[in-house]
Amino acid sequence: MNKRITFLTLCLATSLATFRASAQLAADSTRLKPASYAIGLQLGTTGAGIQLARTLTSDGRLVARVGASYFAYDRVFRVKAGEGKLNITPDLVMGIALASVKWHPFKRNQLFLTGGAGYTWRPDVKANVIAEGNVKFGGLQISQENVGVVNASLRWNSVLGYAGLGYGRSTPIRRLGFAVELGCYYLGSPKVDLQYTGFLETTTIDEQIPVIQRNMENYRFLPSLQFLLTYGLFRK
Question: Does the predicted model carry a pTM greater than 0.85?
Answer without folding.
Answer: no
